[in-house]
Specification:
Structural class: alpha/beta
Radius of gyration: 16 Å
Shape: globular
Strand order of the largest sheet: 3-2-1-4-5-7-6
Largest sheet: 7 strands, mixed
């Protein structure tokens, strides 16, 4: 599957890049997984490794293109200075956190005022969708990737709930899309600007 994986990574990076008018100078990719999308973005945006930060609760492989940081489980505090990022990308993370509002507050702290937050999350708008996403997560992390320690509180919510929570957390919605309309897990991509 190497060719398919490279195609998936390129497509995901392209979908995320469409949320930006110009490349950010320094960005955080939270939920970076293996870091491939972070690397692709850093490469296409010509970002220095110190300014492309890949974070996840599982170890992100080292790369000459990005700075890799392993987050402690629970993600209660992002190990970064306040207002230190021009952008943050949060990919399929909120549903793994016991209290997503705390993580949203941390993102508000580390993103500069007026800058961009891109969120990719499941649009779990029915009990069937919630169950399907929960099962897919369990299968992916416990069986396929062998990371049974990844938190799974199953906070799968409809996109309008994520939007409401992020607005309450100090972010204004500027765009929403369904980048993979045939994906049964129904990912949605939401783009926000940080308010003061």
């Amino acid at each position: 599957f190497p060719a398919q994986e490279l195609e998936r990574v390129a497509k995901r990076a392209q979908q995320i890049a469409l949320s930006f008018d110009e490349p950010p100078k320094r960005f955080l990719d939270l939920g970076a997984g293996d870091g491939q999308v972070t690397q692709k973005l850093a490469e296409s945006w010509k970002t220095s490794p110190a300014n492309a930060v890949a974070m996840d609760v599982i170890p992100v492989p080292s790369s000459p293109l990005v700075t890799s940081v392993q987050m402690p489980q629970g993600i209660l505090r992002i190990p970064a200075d306040s207002r230190s990022f021009d952008a943050a990308i949060v990919s399929m993370v909120f549903h793994h956190v016991e209290n997503p509002e705390l993580l949203m507050a941390e993102l508000h702290r580390v993103i500069k005022e007026g800058e961009t937050l891109v969120v990719r999350e499941a649009d779990a708008n029915s009990s069937t969708s919630m169950a399907l996403n929960g099962f897919a997560d369990l299968l992916f992390y416990s069986v396929l990737e062998n990371h049974p320690d990844v938190p799974m509180p199953n906070n799968f919510l409809p996109s309008d709930t994520w939007i409401r929570l992020l607005k309450q957390g100090g972010f204004d919605l500027i765009g929403a899309s369904n980048p993979e309309p045939h994906n049964p897990l129904a990912p949605v991509q939401l783009t926000f600007k940080r308010r003061p």
